[in-house]
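Hello support,

Our group uses your service weekly, and this is the first time we've seen a run hang past the timeout. The protein is RDD family protein. I'm not sure whether the cause is the sequence or the server load. Input pasted verbatim:
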Amino acid sequence: MKKILFIQRVLAALIDILVIYLPSQFLVFILFGRENSYQNWLSIILFLVYNVLSTVYFSGQTIGKYFASLKVTPVTKSLMEMGQREAIKLLYFLPLVGFIFMILSLLIYIKEGRFLHDKFAKSEVIVYGRN
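Update from on-call engineer: The timeout came from a worker crash unrelated to the input. Re-ran successfully.
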């Protein structure tokens, strides 16, 4: 079950990246011209804001989670609490140490079935409609 959930989470992330992150990066490029690190960070922050808002206002689901039949639980209506969950994901984008945080997160997932950002926020991603 953990392997299937992992595959569903990867699928959900890919959908969100294709539908939200890449278009936001393109939009930022169109608005600000040539690419630089500030534009990359702006795209990442826009993507994380999307994750916070959609998870809070759409019952724990982003577009990707919806199509992958997943949801974040417990769903909190607090933007602050969900923001903390998403802010942890910024660690994955840090130069040099981001890779270390990704490996750490994968190791936590293998052991506990939750990623670093899930553990930190005391949340869990479940198959929607099942407990």
